[in-house]
Amino acid sequence: MRFSPRALACVVVLFASSGVALCDAAFDLDGPVLHATVTRGSETLPIAEVPNLLPADKIWLHVDTPPGQAVHYLMVAAFLRNSTNPPPANWFFKSAAWSKSAQRDGLRLSVPLGALHLLLLLAPETGGGFSTMRSAVEGNPGVFVRASRDLYVASLERTRVDTYLNAVQAIAASDPDRLEARSKLLARSLGVKIDTSCFDKPAEDQPSCLTKNSSSLILDDGHTQSMVASLTTGTTSDLFNQLSYSRAGGGGAYSPYVGAIVDVVHLMGGLHTADYQYLPALTVDSGDAMQLKLSTPPSFRKPKSVLVIGMPAVQAAALPPLHAVHGDNVLCLQAPKLLLPVDGAPLVFSTAYPRNVHLEIAARSGKPAMLAVSADAERGGYAIASTDANTAALTALEAARGHGQDAPVQGYLQGEWGFDAWRGPTFLLEPAHTVTWQPVTEMGSAIAGSAFVAGAKAEFDLRSSAAACVQQITMKDAQQQTVPVVWKQNAPSVLAVSANLQNAAAGPLLMHVQQYSMQEADAVKMRVYTQAAKLSGFVLHSGDTDAELEGAHLNEVQSAELQGVPLMPGELTQNGNAETLRLQVPAAQKQDATKLAALQPNTAATLHVTLQDGRVLDLPIIVQVARPRVQLLSKAVEMDTAGSGTQGAIHVSNSNDLPQSGRLTFFVQSVAPESFARTERLEVAAVDGSFSTTLRVSDGSLMLQDSQTAMAVLDPLKSFGSSAFGALQFRPVDGNGVAGDWQPLAHLVRLPVLKEVLCPMDATAMCTLRGEDLFLLSAVAADAKFTRAVQVPLGLDAQELRVPRPMGATLYVELRDDPKTVNPVA
Question: Which one, out of 22, 240, 510, 727, has a CA that is 20 to 30 A from the CA of 780?
C-alpha cells in the first residue's frame, strides 16, 4: 500500500468579504525547481545544509529550465528588513531565468548589512514585472516579511511530516510487525503526535490511520520557532499566535504550521492585482535543489501567479537543543548497531543541517577516538556506523585505557550546524574488556550458598563495569547440562540474572559471560546445592545450656555456634512440616555451657549454623527470659479407703509408685524466679505424652504455702481416667506460657481388687485367688523371691486365679504396670 504524503490536510482561507472556508488545499503539486548555494568565507554549502544566513554571505541562485520549458520565469530576490521598514531599491535583484547568461551563471547575491530576510519571487515573464513586484514589496513590507518567515518555518515543519510519513510507509512495506515500536520512536525523534489507538486496528489499516491528518501530527518542538524567534515579535505575529492556539492549531500544543499557512494565504490574497496574484510555495530541499510545492495550480494568464518562496533568516544560528535519552545509562561501544538515543531537536532527523557529525570519545591517554555516526529517526538516535575506521578507533581506544581502568569513558556528539560548530549531548560509554564478575543478592551482599538450590529458581545481581557489553550468559551444571538463564541490565553496572535450577544437578555451576567483540567469555564459578535447611526460629532461654532450632530439613545441620559457644545437634522432632532440633553444648565443655547460660535476656546475637555440605546459614536471635524452675521438696500418697474391695491389701513396695486410686500430694519450691507467682502452674503428664493435666492456684489443685513454696494435689483417677498408667513427670509453666524442664514425679500403677484366697485341706494343692481386674497382675508367688510363682496370662477375663499356697498369711504379687517390684498382699 502506498500513501501520498500530505503536508496540509486542510487550509482555511478567510476571505474578507465572505468568510468562506476552503479545505483540502494540500501542498502536493510540484512547482519549478530552484538551485541555491551559500558561501561563507571560503566554504560553500548547498542550500539544504544552510539553516541561517549572515551579512556578507554569498548566495548563488538558479532556476532549473529543463528542455521543453515553455514558460519564461522571472526570478526576483529581495532582502527585507522588518515589517515597518521597506527595503531600499538596491536590495532587489532580478534574473531572467530563460536567458543564456542566467542559465549559465545564475544570480549571485551578497547579504547586505541590516537585512533580516531573503524573499524569492518567481513569476511568468511579463513586461514591467520586476517593477510591479518590487512596488508590491515596498508597499507592503510586513506582508512579505511574514511570508518569508512563515513559509520558511512551514517548509521546515513539512520536512518532519514528510520524514515521518515516508518512514511509516517504508516500515509498513518491509517490516509491518515492527510498525508500532518504530512509529513510537519516530514520533519521539520527529516531535510528532501519533494516535496510539491505530495499533488496535487490523495490521493492514494501521499505516493509513497513522498517516491521516498529517498537519495535526506536528508538536511544537521549540527549536524550529527559535530559528526565527527574534523575528516573530510585534503586531504582525498576532494572527500567527492566535491561530496556533486555536482548536485547529491544537490549543498551543501543536506547532503553528497550520496557522502559518492560513495566515500567509490570507495576507497574500490581499495583494491580488490585475496583473499578479501571489501564491505561497513550500520548498523541499535536497542538496542545492529546492523543489517547490504548491497548493494551487499557478496561472499563466492575467492575473498571473507569483510564487512566494521563503529562505533562511538572516540571524545567528540557533543550534539544536539535542539531549541524550536516559543520559545516565552506560552504552557498550562494541555492541552491534549501537545507538545513541537522543531527542529534543526534530530538525536533526528531518533536515541536512547537521554536518560531519561524529562521536568523540575522550581517552585517558593518547588521542581521542572519533567514530562516524548517522542520524536514525526510526531507531530514535544516532547510530554508530560499522566501518573499518570505527573498528580501528575502538581498538586504539581500548589500548589507551590501560589495565584496571574500569570506569566508563565520556563521549559526545560533535559536528557542524550549517557553517557553525556544534557540540551535542554527552554519553557514558564502556568498551568491552576482561573483568571480574561479582554475583550479589538484591540487598547488595555477596551471594550466600542458599541462593543456589537445586529445584528452585536463583535470582541475583551480577555486577561489573562491563555490564553494558554483555552479549550472552550461559550456565552449565556439574553434569554439563545447560541451565536456562535470562538476564537484563538494571543499572549501569548491574545485570539482573534469573537461572532456572529446576533440573540442575547439585555440584559445581559454571557461568560464562560473553561480551561483544571478546574472543573468550569471562568465567564465574558457583555451586548448586541440594535443598537447604530452612531456619525459621531459635529458642534459647537465659540460664539454659541447650536450645531449640526450628525450621525444615534440620537433619542437614552439622553444628552451630553462638557467641563463640559450639552447639551440637541432639534430638530432632517433627510436627507436620515443622521440625525442632535440640542444640546443646557438648558435655565435656563445661566452661562453654557456663558461658551460654550466662547470656542475659534480650541479648541480640547471630546463630551460625553449619550444614553438612559446608554451607553456613546465619540466623539473628534474641535470648529469651529465663524459664521457670522448681525443686521437688517432698511427696506423699494417700490411699482412698472409702471404696469397696481390698485394694488396700496390696502393699505397694516402691515408694515411687502411685496407685491410681490414691492421691498424690507433693511440695515444690521456686528456684527461678525467686517467688512462685500466682499465675504459675504445674503441668503433670505421662512421659510419652499420652495424657496430662494442669494444676492451678485458681482451681485449688495448687496452694501456695508461702511466696516460694506451693503444695500440689493430684487425683490420678479423676485427672487421667482408668486407663492411665506409667511414668509421670511435671514441669512449671509461667503466666506467659514459657515452660520449664520436665522432672520425674511418680510411676502411676493400677491395682486389682483382691477379695479372698481359698485353699483346700490338701497341703500340696494350689489355692484359688478371687477378685476383680486380676489381669492387672503380672505374676503371683508364695514367697518374696518368687521361687514358686504363677504368671498371669494375657487377656485373663476370669475373676479367679490358681495361685501357690502361701507359706504364711502373705502372698506376693507383681503388677503389670510395674513388673519389677514385688508387692506383698496381706
Answer: 727
CA distance 591 to 545: 11
Q: Per the structure block, which three cell numbers stand in for 19?
A: 468568510
| Gap between the Cα atoms of 640 and 519, Å rounded | 95
Give me the helices (H) in 630-785, please: 716-720
Given a cut of 80, is residue 33 above it in pLDDT? yes
Residues 6+ apart with CB under 8 A from 721: 691
Residue 751, Cα to own-chain centre: how many angstroms? Answer: 74
Q: Which three cell numbers stand for residue 517?
A: 567483540
pLDDT in tens, 347-391: 999 999 999 999 998 766 667 888 889 999 999 999 988 777 777
Q: CB within 8 A of 723, min separation 6: which ones?
A: none
* Model pLDDT for residues 555-609, shown as the tens digit of each residue: 889 999 999 999 999 999 988 888 999 999 998 888 888 999 899 999 999 999 9
Which residue in 567, 573, 551, 564 sits closest to 610, CA to CA? Answer: 567
Beta strands in 464-603 (DSSP E): 470-476, 485-491, 494-500, 507-515, 522-528, 534-539, 546-552, 557-562, 565-575, 578-584
Query: What mean pLDDT is predicted for residues 530-543?
Result: 85
Residues 319-336 as b/e (b if ≥16 CB within 10 A, e otherwise) read bbebebeeeeebbbbbbe
Per the CB < 8 A criterion, the answer to whether 257 and 218 are in contact is yes
| C-alpha dist (Å) from residue 452 to 473, 504, 517, 555, 652 | 17, 10, 30, 19, 63
> Buried (b) or exposed (e) across 346-364, using 16+ Cβ within 10 A?
bbbbbbbbbeebbbbbebe
| List of residues 6+ apart from 373 with CB closer than 8 A | 340, 357, 358, 359, 382, 383, 384, 385, 413
pLDDT of residue 241: 42
Measure the CA angle with vertex 191, ends 325 and 314; round to 5°: 105
Residue among 24, 25, 57, 26 nearest 43 (CA): 57
Strand duo 507-515 + 43-46: pairing: unpaired
Neighbours of 810 (CB within 10 A): 13
Cα separation, 295 vs 22, in Å, equals 12
Of 299, 280, 254, nearest to 146 (Cα)? Answer: 280
**pLDDT value for 55:** 96
Residue-wise pLDDT for 395-415, tens only, equals: 766 665 554 456 678 889 999
Q: Give the C-alpha separation, 347 to 159, whole Å.
A: 8
